[in-house]
Amino acid sequence: MTNSTNRINEFIKLLNNKLRLSDFIGQFISLTEKGNSHVGRCPFHNEKTPSFYVNNEKGLFHCFGCKVGGNIITFTSKYKNFTFKETVDYLSRYSGIKFDNLAPRNKYNYKNEMTLKILECVNIFFKKCLINSTVSKNYLKKRISEELMSIFDIGFCPDHSVLENYLKKEGFSEEVFKKLDLFIKNKKGEYFGRFSNRITFPIFDFENKIVGFGGRTISDSKIKYINSQDSEIFKKSKILFGFKQNIEFIRAQKEICLVEGYLDVIKMYQYDIKTSVSSLGTSLSEIQLRKMWSYTNTPYICFDGDEAGKNASKNIAVKSLSYLIPGKSLKFIFLPDNLDPDQFIEKNGKNKFIELKSKALNLSEYIWNIILNEINEMTPEFVATIDEKILLYVSKIANKNVAKEYFRFLKNKKEKFIWGKDISSGKKINIFSKPEITENLNEKMLIAIIIFESKMLIKFFEEISNIKLQDLDLEEKKNKVIQLLSENDFKIQLESNNEGIFENSFFSQIKDLKETHLEKIEESDKETFFLNILNNIRLPNLIKEREIIKEELLTNKDKSLDNLLIKFQNLNIEIQNIQNKKID
Question: pTM for the complete prediction?
Fold first, then answer.
């Protein structure tokens, strides 16, 4: 191929890594997802039945009606009626990829082809060495099955001299293979193996070619994991470990879960979670992110549960804002007790991980938690900086529509936060805390107040007794507590659930509400907070009663409707006061 052709192919590849073809074409015509493709009416001829197909994975489109097809350059040129140069200029401006800056090279030139051939040969050798290495094989057998060793092509790298002799026997030049990342030259000019005495994991690019290795120590080495260094063919930012093995499951389930390490991916596969990939560390590049988005709208991020993993998740959340477009986001899974995915699944099993995944935190919620965590104290003067932080994070979002919605969302969160009296606690928010209890929150909060704030129950005993909760199960629990406390002259303590009147899971929720809400409120504010909760519970019934009276006013032909009208007006005022959070 000519240098010009190579540059065009490289440009198309970079475009496909950065843009989903269906998103790009979807700006001009309406597309509907259908299996692994997107379908719409062809813009190049009149048709009633859609026959225009777009395949993101291949970066191609094809119309079965008029037979027009091609890549992103073909579509742009034909749709815009551009010359080739106009098309390239347009796509360069659109994507930010400068065509003129692309080096006229072939990715797999002779030198690189030789490198790839050596790496393929070395991987076969490593796998044979694993069979003969009792220590390394026993180490792996304690963790994964032999089937998985085969699926992920796991091997073992012996001493560098053994590897060197093998490559010579295979006919490779010492001058060539010693320049590869497999060997490291020290200050004395001596060579030693980068992966010597380590378990090896071949790393494939998106074209399923081995471009490097990862190695894990089985000794007491301080360096637990080691990867190939970046080179002309190995670009860490363009690789997702496990993608080759999991691609069919990712495509079928339309789900991807990003983890840190090789063993996380492999252990999840063993437990039938076959949608995980690793970025070979705790970073995430734009290319990796867009690759994941080409298969699912909302990838999961599940890094280790230690501080480093949490900080890495935060960095990815902030970084991803720059690349957000409508319909694309992330969710974050936070592991407990400093565990990594490998350890968590080994300890708790697949179902517990799926349960944890169902509670994953949306990117927008996570950004809000990050903002709160940056406030030094929950006092008015520090809370006043929230608006500045909202603007700072929203400004990172390049897409104007997404930025507008984030601004609206974060401002709304701020208003709810301030009304929720979190300011009074003076405490920081834990951004990695348990998922918020949102279902029947007001009714559960009322039960928490009854249990942990007995003075409030005594003072407002009649109001609490008369109010009827919408949730029948919670209504029954409320009445049980009131009965038990009143029978014991309000002297009995229920803080430890010693009476066994609640299931442990429910009582755990009530205790969480105490920690997240009641303990953050000053004593002087608790009565106001309680009355707000009481009114929020009453609100649905008041609205319902108002609608009934309204219907009577409209249908009743009797002229003496003064009492009904007065009642309607009083209800209206009461409802408005509750909705505006006004307490008499």
Answer: 0.64
